[in-house]
Fold:
Amino acid sequence: MNPLALLLTLSSLLFSLGLLAVLTRRNAILILVGIELMLNAANINFIAFWRYGPPDPELTGPMFVLFSIAIAAAEAAVGLAIILMVFRHTRSTDLNRLDSLHG
Amino acid sequence: MIIPLLILTPLVLLAALGAVWKARPVHAALLLALSLALVAVLYLTIGADFIGLVQFMVYVGAVAILIVFSLLITRPGDEAEEIQRRPRSMVTGLICTLPVLAVLLIALVKGNPESAPAVDAPPLSIAHLGELLFTTHAPAVLAVGVLLTAVMIGAALFARDTEKPKSNQPEK
Amino acid sequence: MIFATVPFPSFTLESLPQLPKLLVEWLLMLVGAPDWLVSIGGTAAMAGTVVGVFLSAFALLSLVERKTLARIQNRLGPNRAGWFGILQPVADGIKMLTKEDIVPTKAEWLLHLAAPILIVVPSILALGVMPLGREWVPVNMELGLLFFFSVGALTELSVFMAGWASGSKFPMLGAMRAISQMVSYELPLIISALGVIMVTGSLRLSDIVVHQGDFYFGFIPKWNLFTPWGFAAGLIFYIASIAEANRCPFDLPEGESEIVAGHMTEYSGFKYALFFMGEYLGLFAIAGLGVTLFLGGWQAPLPFLGWVPTWIWFFAKLAVIIMSYLWIRGTFPRVRIDQLMRFAWLCLIPMALLTIPAAALWVFTGKGIVSWVVTVPLLLIPWVILTILFNKRLAPATRTYTFADS
Structure:
């Protein structure tokens, strides 16, 4: 097994784990945990292809990961602010209970 | 080169599995931090030093802290309920996740990365990265700056207490 | 004759701290060890030197702090153990080691155990990239400054772990205070360091020191502190570093009159000693970084003092900074949490952001008279406006004491 295949396998498994977390968790904050795992799986792919793929003088892979990390941080901040706002209104972060618009 | 990766990969996956599996929310968040820190170590071992350190700083220093802090503020309910309903949610979750994993792995096998020629990228040079960042990617950097400013202001507005602030002074 | 084949490498006063490393390497070569073993042995000796030096500095400081505070408060301080209490750190150490290690029943033992260890490790790692002398840079990393801040980020998580794993009220409250304070003050800390990076053009800490090497008019050192943007950034860095090190007047996380000992309440014995150690090593690391970034690191302050070994200058500057921390601790009252947060977000962060354009203008206009004319108003006018605003409108409401005032 060469490093590229290993890293790609890692990234696929990590992505699936993140998806599983998003699908099974009910706490909104823990769903964010799953989303962070999926974002990281994508980042690993970029770094793996930059390192072991064809030569890339433009550094597209690391560059994309840098922006991805910046946006992930922004997303976490906004997501948690929204969750706290919801929590203040409903006293709960359980997504199954946030159904007041449910007909 | 491959041996450190072979050690790190299962560790990353185990920590991520714990983050998904642990019923107690704080444990899940701490295991997420561990998993992401191990990914940062993985970046360091394959030569992307700058990315690894940035990953460590942003994820362990900021995102994980944000997550545990909001867990503390919201005080999520007890984990007994979570464990009780776990079998059902896990079945549905796996039904949706396994096909995705299968597609990813099939694509991986078909793509045959084993056949890729072994090239060694030169180590990540910060000077080069910075130069590209502020020439080719300057508009993107500006856009990210605007985004982060908007996020900071937005989060501050969201998180502000909408009720009337209580003053320190006692009623006269 | 095997002894003749490996001559002992020469060393001077300048490279005196390298002596353990050279000694270990020489001994290993003498017994004919393979190359990789020699290099590992040398690195281990080097790391051991740094850790040993800072641990003895920690022991010394714990005594000096108590003595200084006692002097400020018109007391004698510890004076029973040894000559002028010089053996007090040893006595403290023995006491800490022999105390019972109590883990509360509600605590999670693994996280409870991991927290004190994870507080010490990042401080030691951060000290490892510091240029302690011209030839004494334990690890000369290209990304030294980024590495310093990255490992520093681990401290917050370990404080959280300590507070949460104790399973008790005061540690939790203390940890929440500590985290919000550290996150708020880390921003001005990092932002004020950005100006230095821009002017130097390198993240390598030894490059930053070398860049501050020259003298103006032959006697004023070209340290970053003696430039308009560097003075502002240095001041912000100094204030933020006091808060990062959780020291008075920003020691709310462990304010003993309010929440016992904050996140360390449920710790005892050796684990408590580890917290103590991590705090002091973190203090050395952050003060050392301030010295490196703004006070010229190991550079001599006057041109004719160049013959003194450079590592002496580093430690002298470090001692001055740390003594100023002690002085502040002895004289200032503790601030309130709302004052603390307001000060960070409304005063320190805007000013820290202003030092970045100021540093850019400084380089752009050629670091001469013009630069002074341009950058001084850029920093001074907002500062005056902020001060007026802060004193008038933004200042926290003064507390009125219903019974004590009348």
